[in-house]
Design goal:
This protein is an alpha/beta fold. The chain is built from 16 helices and 14 strands.
């Protein structure tokens, strides 16, 4: 007993050391196996654990998913520093690439995506590009959507110089009139693909997601597209909330800016697909998705300069942009070693903004052109952020090729990658809806 009592702490220290050593070894194995794709039967991976892509593994994964295909998702952020112009400009370039690579001069964005999610200005773009027009195609092409935002930017968005006029004279009604003229009586049911557009409902104090699937499945969830656009872009600091009802008058919403709920709706779009086996029966995980997420520029308010303190709307924008970054990093981590091939983020960093968060440069078209040439900062799995290797334009070019390949694959595939719900041929009295197979889309 005397021998033990002379060194009462020695046994404890040795025990803790062994536990810590075991814990360290366990976590080292887990880290190498799950984070860096290490396999004990193939120890060569340890020599370069930070390399997330192995050629052999990529070939196996590619062969595995060639037969089932991938669900294509487009996500568009809220206004950002450019009031949606950067995203619109990105879509113009994407549509041009798709037309060139597919050989179809009339190809449109909606032809090459299965799901679109947009918030604020992104929601307006989603509606313009995915709502069915008179000829059966979308209401606007990407170029027409860009021109629409440029022409009506000062009327719609908070960062414009017309912000004071809007607060005094309440031009929210003028914005709603603009959307009614653009969309007519079209509703969420009239969209070409699966559409998700968020707002924040003040009556329930919770986010509300306008959804094509919900509009077709349930009574009380179909809304006029003009009201949806007014709701998702309603700036709470300058206009009255949008009071709206569903087409059948069953659901009432008091809506403000979708950016308050989810400025970056990418995660909502991914969740919608992964939990919707009716429309996306073969999608089991992120490896079955290809996602393009479009930002609208991150504002640089000139902090450190006492004369450049953001206004209330500026702080709302800062919060939205911060949330967008968080979603981007989370999604990037969720894709893991598929991040480089299946997930693309287009964003511009450090855009000089006024106190409301808007772009200071007068020629916004020229400014967005410069932004697309940038190599933006992007999230890296468990490594923070780094400068991207490719410019935004180069990433769009490569991604467009992947979209065209998927489109061509579906023309000969017997497996149904996407089975979107379609509107019933007669007026519905229940939540039942028909299904229609998309052979090429």
């Amino acid at each position: 007993m005397a021998a033990v009592s002379e060194f009462p702490m020695l046994t404890c220290i040795d025990s803790n050391y062994e536990v810590d050593k075991l814990t360290y070894e366990i976590f080292s194995i887990l880290e190498n196996k799950f984070l860096f794709n290490y396999d004990q039967s193939n120890p060569k991976h340890i020599s370069n654990p930070t390399k997330l892509h192995n050629n052999d593994n990529d070939m196996v994964k590619s062969a595995k998913h060639d037969n089932t295909g991938k669900v294509r998702i487009l996500s568009i952020d809220g206004g950002g520093a450019t009031d949606g112009i950067l995203a619109a400009k990105s879509l113009v370039h994407l549509e041009s690439c798709l037309r060139r690579k597919s050989g179809n001069p009339n190809a449109c964005i909606a032809d090459f995506f299965d799901v679109v999610a947009g918030s604020g200005a992104g929601g307006i773009l989603a509606a313009l590009l995915f709502t069915r027009g008179r000829g059966g195609g979308p209401v606007f092409t990407a170029d027409e959507a860009l021109n629409f935002l440029v022409k009506n930017r000062r009327k719609i968005f908070r960062s414009s110089k017309a912000g004071l006029f809007r607060r005094i004279f309440g031009s929210g009604k003028a914005v709603q009139k603009l959307f009614r003229k653009t969309f007519g009586d079209c509703t969420m049911k009239d969209t070409l693909k699966s559409v998700l557009i968020p707002c924040y409902d003040l009556s329930s104090r919770a986010p509300f997601l306008f959804s094509r699937a919900d509009a077709l499945e349930m009574d009380g969830y179909d809304f006029k597209m003009s009201d949806v656009c007014a709701a998702t872009s309603a700036d709470p600091t300058s206009v009255e909330p949008v009071q709206m009802r569903s087409v059948d008058q069953r659901t009432r919403i008091v809506a403000v800016d979708g950016g308050i709920a989810m400025n970056n709706p990418t995660a909502a779009a991914i969740t919608h697909v992964l939990n919707n086996k009716q429309e996306f029966p073969l999608c089991k995980g992120v490896e079955d998705l290809v996602v393009m997420s479009l930002g609208n520029g991150e504002s640089s308010f000139g902090f450190g300069n006492e004369t450049c303190s953001p206004s209330a709307s500026g702080f709302v924008r800062i919060a939205g942009e911060g949330t967008s970054d968080l979603v981007d990093q989370s999604v990037s981590m969720a894709f893991g070693d598929f991040r480089m091939t299946n997930y693309v983020r287009i964003q511009a960093n450090g855009v000089m903004a006024n106190k409301n968060g808007g772009l200071e440069k007068i020629d916004i078209m020229e400014a967005t052109k410069d932004m697309l040439a940038q190599k933006n900062v992007e999230s890296v799995l468990f490594q923070g952020k780094k400068i991207a290797q490719s410019s935004n334009l180069e990433k769009i070019e490569v991604f467009s090729g992947d979209l065209v390949k998927e489109q061509e694959r579906r023309k000969t595939s017997v497996l149904r990658t996407v089975v979107l719900k379609q509107m019933s041929p007669s007026p519905r009295t229940s939540s039942a809806s028909t299904l229609s197979t998309l052979s090429s889309n």
